[in-house]
Structures are given as structure tokens and as C-alpha cells.
Design goal:
This is ISAs1 family transposase. GO terms for molecular function: DNA binding; transposase activity. The protein has two domains: 115 residues, no CATH class; 221 residues, Transposase Inhibitor Protein From Tn5, Chain A, domain 1. It is 42% helix and 19% strand. The chain is built from 14 helices and nine strands. The protein has a nine-stranded mixed sheet with strand order 3-2-1-4-5-9-8-7-6, sandwiched between helices. Helix 13 packs across helix 14.
């Protein structure tokens, strides 16, 4: 990439609000944020490591950033502690909208929370990030911080409002039991998106009624046509078998006033470990028409957010090991990691993420290819 292309690529961060007193500043906010992003892409996990990267790549960074000397690690720490996390996440959302906005029809969009374990201290609960994951594009579409897992429920409606900017019409949004809220279902229906929401005992009589519907159907051994198929998926590596059944929503469920509810789903998982077999039944509400194949695919695909996002953040980016706890620092570093992962996924190089992080640290050309993903798509 040319120097001008690099400058254009990082210019999207110029819109971030800088709350620092401008008198006596040695570094622009763009310089600090872009240095940190490049460092995290290149294997840095802490502020001292970010400083070390910037010092080792000083000449390369000067091709497109204006600075006299590299900020010390305390400067990075202070800036990210004060940076507006909503504005930082909005910049990520703007890029996502530019990259794949309007391309989510038929996609499985999973929403799930992840605890930042290193942010917990003594009796103080740490930060949770509620993440939105596109299975087709393998990108983190959005992430919203909440103070403690119990607050995930209250943040979901506003997160759904954020998704409206990405044109989610026609996608299937999957959420665990925290998302089984009428307000969430209502917002998704208004956006012309489908939903599949986990149903657990905390829904009281609704859970019991759905359980009874399937118990009665299976007890009477009604035909698979009435059950809309019994789709089975087997994982021989783990000795696991999953079977799904789907029933049209019974008129009795109308009393619960669930927006857009068309079907209910039961997935039975049978797992054998060391000769011992355990069976688990899970239930779901969905706006999808009764189809066991689609339901089982959506349930299976939902858990990609654990393997392809949460696990990667912990193993390749050491997210759980991060001890940053000051002010907005934990949320902003979490956003920075998701930026780095998205750019790697968008660039498309094969191989493990931790290997590609090391490659970005060694190879200036590869790092430039990652930054190139920030450029607006040609019209």
C-alpha cells in the first residue's frame, strides 16, 4: 500500500471524540488508537507490549501517522481509560455497515455474552461483553459492555436497535435464554428478521406448556409429518447425537402474546462419554415456520459464537488474562481485539489467528493488507 492509502485507511478514526485537554498534547487520538490497533493485530496484549511494538516499528508507523516520539505505556493506558466506548464501538459498526451491510439475509446472527474474567476483583463483578456474531461472514458485528451478567437482559433491546443499522431483514437471530423477552421478539419482528430464542424454566408456565406439547406429541407417537420431521445430526468425534422436533405454535400459546411466534422446537442431545450416556432436552421459541432441518441448523450454528469468537479471543488474544480494570479501559481493549480479529477474518489468510498475529508482527506487507480492509469498498 502507498502512504496515502494507509492514511486513508486509518482516517475513519478521525471522527472519534477526544475528551483530553488539547493544550500540551504530544499525540493525536488517531495516532494512539491506530498504533494500538496495529500492535494488537501484531501480537501485543498489554499496554507495555503496545509501546514496545510502536518503538520497534517507529519508521513504518511514520509513513502514515504524525508523531515525534512513541507514547509510553501509561499514555496508552490513560487514553483508552478515557476514550468514549460508545463512540469507539460506533466506529467499528460504521465499518461493518460499509463492509457487509445489507448482506445478512439468510445468515445466522448469534447473540451471546462473554465475561472478561480479568476485570473482576475481589467482590466486584467484572465487565461482560454482549457480542453479535455473523456465522456466514465470521465477523463480530457489534459488542456492548454491561456491568455483570445479570445486566445482559436489560441491554439486549438497545443492542437490537443497533442491529437495525445493518439491515438484518431476512436473517435468523439466535439468543440464549437471556434473550427470551417479548421486547426482543417484537423488535426483531419489526426489523423483518426471524428469531430463535432459548426457552428455560424461568419462563414459568410457558416453559411447562411447551414441554407438555412435545411430551404429548411423542407419547401419542404422532407422525413425523405432524412433527414436521425429526432431523438428526451426529458428531462421531464426540459421540453426540442431536435430534430436533418442531411443532406449529398451539393456539393455547396465544395467551402469552409472543410477537411473531409460529413454531416451538425441541432439541434432544444424547452424549456418550467413557461409556456413560446422558440425554438433555432443550426448547426454543421461533418465528420460523415449522421445519426441523432449519431449526436444528440454527441451534447448531448458534454455538459457533463460542468456538469462533469467544474461544479465539481467549486463546489467541488472551482476553481473559487482561488485567486492565480502569474506567473504560476494559471495554475499549475488548473492542480493539474484535477490530483486529475482524480485519484478519476479512483479509482471509488461512491459518490459526495466533499464527497470523505473529505474522503481522514480522511482516509489514501483511500488516498493511490487514489495514487495507479498513478502506471503503469501491462503488
Amino acid at each position: 500500500m502507498t502512504d496515502e492509502q494507509l492514511k486513508l485507511a486509518v482516517s475513519l478514526f478521525a471522527q472519534l471524540p477526544d475528551e483530553r485537554k488539547h493544550r500540551g498534547l504530544n499525540h493525536s487520538l488517531v495516532t494512539i488508537v491506530v498504533m494500538a490497533l496495529c500492535a494488537v493485530m501484531s501480537g501485543a496484549d498489554t499496554f507495555p507490549e503496545i509501546q514496545a511494538f510502536a518503538e520497534s516499528k517507529r519508521d513504518w508507523l511514520r509513513r502514515f501517522l504524525d508523531f515525534r516520539r512513541v507514547p509510553d505505556h501509561e499514555t496508552f493506558r490513560r487514553v483508552f481509560a478515557r476514550l468514549d466506548p460508545v463512540a469507539f464501538q460506533s466506529s467499528a459498526l460504521d465499518w461493518i455497515k460499509q463492509a457487509i451491510g445489507g448482506q445478512l439475509e439468510g445468515d445466522i446472527v448469534a447473540i451471546d455474552g462473554k465475561r472478561l474474567r480479568g476485570t473482576s476483583e475481589h467482590e466486584v463483578q467484572g465487565v461482560h461483553m454482549v457480542n453479535v456474531w455473523s456465522a456466514r461472514h465470521r465477523l463480530c458485528l457489534a459488542a456492548q459492555p454491561v456491568a455483570g451478567k445479570q445486566n445482559e437482559i436489560s441491554t439486549l433491546p438497545s443492542l437490537i436497535d443497533t442491529l437495525a443499522l445493518l439491515e438484518v431483514s431476512g436473517c435468523i437471530v439466535t439468543i440464549d435464554a437471556m434473550g427470551t423477552q417479548r421486547a426482543v421478539a417484537e423488535k426483531l419482528v419489526a426489523l423483518h428478521a426471524q428469531y430463535l430464542l432459548a426457552l428455560k424454566g424461568n419462563q414459568g408456565y410457558l416453559f411447562e406448556d411447551v414441554q407438555e406439547m412435545f411430551s404429548d406429541a411423542l407419547r401419542r407417537q404422532i407422525s413425523e409429518t405432524e412433527l414436521h420431521g425429526a432431523s438428526t445430526w451426529e458428531d462421531r468425534r464426540r459421540s453426540e447425537k442431536r435430534t430436533s422436533w418442531v411443532l406449529p405454535a398451539h393456539p393455547d400459546l396465544d395467551d402469552y402474546h409472543w410477537p411473531g411466534l409460529r413454531s416451538v422446537v425441541m432439541v434432544e442431545s444424547t452424549r456418550t462419554v467413557r461409556g456413560k450416556t446422558a440425554t438433555e432436552q432443550r426448547f426454543f421459541l421461533t418465528s420460523l415456520p415449522a421445519c426441523s432441518v432449519t431449526a436444528l441448523y440454527a441451534v447448531r450454528t448458534h454455538w459457533e459464537i463460542e468456538n469462533s469468537l469467544h474461544w479465539v479471543l481467549d486463546v489467541a488474544f488472551a482476553e481473559d488474562d487482561s488485567r486492565t480494570r480502569t474506567d473504560h479501559g476494559p471495554q475499549n481493549l475488548a473492542t480493539l481485539r474484535r477490530w483486529a480479529l475482524n480485519l484478519m477474518r476479512r483479509e482471509g489468510s488461512v491459518g490459526a489467528v495466533n499464527k497470523n498475529r505473529k505474522r503481522a508482527g514480522w511482516d509489514d506487507e501483511f500488516r498493511e493488507r490487514l489495514l487495507q480492509q479498513l478502506l471503503p469498498l469501491p462503488t
